[in-house]
Amino acid sequence: xxxxxxxxxxxxxxxxxxxxxxxxxxxxxxxxxxxxxxxxxxxxxxxxxxxxxxxxxxxxxxxxxxxxxxxxxxxxxxxxxxxxxxxxxxxxxxxxxxxxxxxxxxxxxxxxxxxxxxxxxxxxxxxxxxxxxxxxxxxxxxxxxxxxxxxxxxxxxxxxxxxxxxxxxxxxxxxxxxxxxxxxxxxxxxxxxxxxxxxxxxxxxxxxxxxxxxxxxxxxxxxxxxxxxxxxxxxxxxxxxxxxxxxxxxxxxxxxxxxxxxxxxxxxxxxxxxxxxxxxxxxxxxxxxxxxxxxxxxxxxxxxxxxxxxxxxxxxxxxxxxxxxxxxxxxxxxxxxxxxxxxxxxxxxxxxxxxxxxxxxxxxxxxxxxxxxxxxxxxxx
Length: 381
Fold this sequence. Notes:
The chain is α/β, with parallel strands linked by helices. Helix content is 42%, strand content 16%. Helix 3 runs antiparallel to helix 4 (85-104).
């Protein structure tokens, strides 16, 4: 069954995060399987490198870019920040702008990746809302968006459980884990330049402050430890202040953004990758990419991370907000290169066995096809 699939994501043209990378990966694989794919987004004067590369490499995917209204242009000039208010305003304004487009163009599926993106898509369209993370508090905007979606999917069991509990949902939420391109993200022989690598936004829920605090203990055993932190966000100033206060500035290299090629190199040039998230996450895309490169992973027991990481088998799990446990895990893996190697080797095996995009898209397309036949999917697949 060949489907017409629209991916509605205003930020996909200019921002680079999991909520942008994942739908682009999906669009690529949908198109490769001969589905008719259209991306609906906002025209940005500065496109992300990820979006530019996608545009070049996927000529079969139709891209519809809407010129921002004056109101939307004003919203876009503001940083995303901690608050969801900025994203909500963008989603609402962009949704209003695209209503006529959807009234005139019929799709089998309109996929959204943020709750409020679903809100203004007309009822003639069949909306699948993919839940990427967990909201901190119950919101009417989210409730209305969930009610609008014909089908719900989530990227982790922990995410599904959260939304079911918060909104007392009785309807199915289909578990559709994200994947990774294991042919691109793969182990490479190269010298190890960094002991620790973190990749992600610099926001409170990522737990980067716990990583920095842990270094005070680690440096007692490894005074020359090297750390790379890649990312930007509203917490950057605070995190740099913590690093100065902890006298860790000399140990940390900061990069705001890097290309995919540089990211692949960093995964392979690092002895281990640390993802100390404390809330809201699903199964981190960056964690899966690092695992696919055979890196040793340290992450937390919260969110969706234990749905991939099996403690001391393909990675190490520590409690969230526990900088001492994080330090102990780091010291152990720095002292035991054989354990590091075994963890990374098993993580790579698990990615190839179950977590490639090819395997994950198989599951996702089953949900899409059933939803396309019946807008209200009643029985889990």
